[in-house]
Design a protein that fits this description.
- The complex is a heterodimer.
- Helices cover 77% and strands 0% of the residues of chain A.
- Chain A is built from nine helices and no strands.
- Chain B is an all-alpha fold.
- The chains are: A mainly alpha, B mainly alpha.
- At the A-B interface, helix 1, helix 4, helix 8 and helix 9 of A face helix 1, helix 2, helix 4 and helix 7 of B.
Amino acid sequence: MKRLFLALTLLLMSFLAALDHLDAFHALVARIGIQRWMTELVLAAAAVALFVNATHLHRRLLFPRRGLRLLAAGLGVYAIALVAATGWLSRAVDFFVIDTSGAWSAVADVVADLGAQPVFLSAQVLLVVGAVRALTNLVPPAEFEADY
Amino acid sequence: MLRRASVLLGMAVLLSLVIPLKALLKHSGVDAALGMRDLELVAACVLLALLPAFALFHDAQLARRIPRWNIWVAVLAFCSVLFLLLHLPWTLGLAAVYAKEALPPTIPHGAVISAIELAARLGVLVSLVGVLVNLDAIPAEEAPVKRRKK
């Protein structure tokens, strides 16, 4: 459930990031030092929490669970993309790879060329597939109402 | 058939909004190579997203699980078509002309169209989630075990 919650929050953040309509609001809150991603995170987490609560999602997930491995993989790749976007990945490789002539230099080159965008894209694809698989594996509403 | 098509289209629209296909196409220079404008790019992204949407649709056996009559499906169909129409140059032009004539001059028609487009996006998001959480049970031969009551 935590994985699904995180995945839905990240996907909703991505949806909100594509909205130009919120630019004025973001500019307004930027005056008090709040960055765009922070606002999107708060909005997305609040909306997902409301959705989970309103639909009793945690009680409606069926066994065997579907999509959870994909969600875990997506979250992992998303974390790598975040690290790559901040530049920490290439700095860490530069720090640890001292010998620039060996096989490790190839790894350093690959990491240096690794753009964050394709990694984000793969993470989002995994998250979307995982989330759809999880959300289509619920107890039907009529059956749930009869049971609880 | 109509229900299936509307859910498939809704999924494609939402996938194109959630996955940054537009940014990827721009980044790779495909839009410049094909001479596409921003509007056409959005429609192209929806078309591109139809393939993964179909795969997800098939994987979840949605064709057999969409309820016969559901308000979410109707809203999804309406919002998806509205979103697409607002991202085709000629229909957007028609809408702009109509809004300019119908609205008083004090109300900017561009803002109204932008608000309608936002409503269509949010409508697609909310109604598709509504469809997914209100699906019928998986057909019996492959149904998973139901969670035990606490």
